[in-house]
Amino acid sequence: PYTTLFRSVKLNQLCILLGLGYSGVIFFSFLLCIIPVFAAIKIEKVDSLEALFIYYAMYLYLHAFNMIRQCIAMSFCLLALSFLLKKHRLKFLLFMMVAFLFHKSSLIFMIVLPFLHITLTKNRIVFFIIFSFLVGTLLSQRLFIMLAGPFAGYLQNSEFGFRPPSIVIKLFTLLLNCLFLLFIFSGKKKYLNDAWLKLLLLGYLCMNCTMGLVLGTRLMFYFTQSQVIFYPVYFIFVISCIATAFCSVETLSESTIF
Questions:
Q1: Angle formed by the axes of helices 227-257 and 68-85, to 10°?
Q2: What is the pLDDT of residue 250?
Q3: Confidence band, pLDDT 50/70/90 cuts, at residue 82
Q4: Contacts of 20 (CB under 8 A, 6+ apart)
Q5: What's the Cα-to-Cα distance from 162 to each of 158, 174, 184, 202, 211, rounded to whole Å?
Q6: Which residues contact 221 (CB under 8 A, 6 or more apart)?
Q7: What is the 3-state secondary structure (H, E, C) of 25-59?
Q8: 21 and 15 in contact (C-beta within 8 Å)?
């Protein structure tokens, strides 16, 4: 399973040269996952501890040990976008090329480019969420194969295909959507067209459309990894609102008493 990865970066030869076994391969692979993410966090100047807490807490850390090649590609995609947002287009192309060398599925990340130019409103976000949820609910295996064409094999195979109809999966997906919309409606309008929120929205749309597929997370995690950038910024806003409200109440109380 590591043929493509090792052919690209010669990681197995390095581990053999250093006398390391499979644990060494896992160690260096994880470094290739975490270093681009940490570099993106630094470029975006968000709180490192909060961002890394989200990375570890939201399964992204454990996921890195499960789908090694793709997780490395995902990390380099995240770093590439951070450079693109800083107008470093050459670095964006360079790191996207690195991601592609690890896993060809990284090409799906290019859908971000046109999506960044879409102006979002709260109503549009709600529409996208509802529409994608209906698509995921109504999507059948035959329709999926017809729409996905040659790429259908990436999200389903002889072992993992469509889940049996489950109300639990739909309710859980609906709950996650409601939580995301809570963030949308409780935040400032300026966050609606933040690039990292748009990337996260794409992740939720992928999650909704592929909720019937066991391997749907393969696609979703390319976009939901943006949580490590978006949520620390959002939490700072929430904390500042709470602090402002507390100070206002305290001032009002003091003026009333004295």
A1: 60
A2: 37
A3: very high
A4: 27
A5: 10, 18, 31, 21, 9
A6: 60, 63, 70, 71, 74, 203
A7: HHHHHHHHHHHHHHHHHHHHCCCHHHHHHHHHHCC
A8: yes
